[in-house]
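Dear Dr. H.,

I hope your travels went smoothly. While you were away I took the liberty of generating a structure for the chain from your last submission, since the lab meeting agenda had it listed for discussion. I wanted you to have the full record in hand beforehand rather than looking at slides cold. The sequence, exactly as received, is reproduced here:
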Amino acid sequence: MLLSIITINYNNLEGLKKTLESVLSQKFHDFEWIVIDGGSTDGSKELLESNNSYISYWVSEQDCGIYHAMNKGIALAKGEFCQFLNSGDYYIEADTLTKVFASTELADVNYGDQWCASNGKVVEKRTYPDKMSLSYLLKAPLGHQASFFRTSIIKEHLYREKYTISADRAFFLELYVHGHRFQHIKMPVVYFDTEGIGSNVKTLEERRRQFHSIKREFFSDQVVEDIEQLMTEADNYQFVCRVAPLRWTYRLFRKIQQLRDKWKTP
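The corresponding predicted structure, in token form, is as follows:
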């Protein structure tokens, strides 16, 4: 089996309906679908029961949060790759998975682009760099809904459940630091539901606090400070290059410095 689609849900019946419809509409069929429901009371359990024949495995029981539910899904996964398509998220097209797995040279982490949707409308189109870097992972999150992970690897690197909102950032960072290969899928894969807790403006400060702790779990304070300083310098340079007056001023001073260095040469 090529793919394990893992969906977690808690009291998001309408979102689960969207995800169900999207999964069942895929022209690609070499997958299992695992649904981990946190003991919903809004009719989600009944929806799963009525679609039991389409779901490889599902459970509805109390869990310890988002990432605990994801880890439960990983433990059950039998596919070569895993994808976390949570309730409310859905594929861009019916042939999305066919296109993703048309390549025979997939990496350990294959990250696609994603469109962010709210109330059925696209509010942002997120595209990611072709070459992944540490500086990018320290600056911005990747969309794990649009990513496909080699199952044998993530079974060894589970989500860190203590980070209740930002464990996906620790997850990507851990995989990168351990030398696993990242590859960009140059196409939008999913519509990501921005109504979830991980995108809520009310959780922004907590997400920042958690990511501050994540960085220092992987690197010393000094290393983090050095990396952030380098990132700031790179951002400032890019800003200067974008603004014409600053760009010409920078080039003038650089030329003057080159001439001064030349004159100093014996």
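Two observations you may find useful: The longest strand covers residues 182-193. The mean pLDDT is 88.

With kind regards,
E. W.
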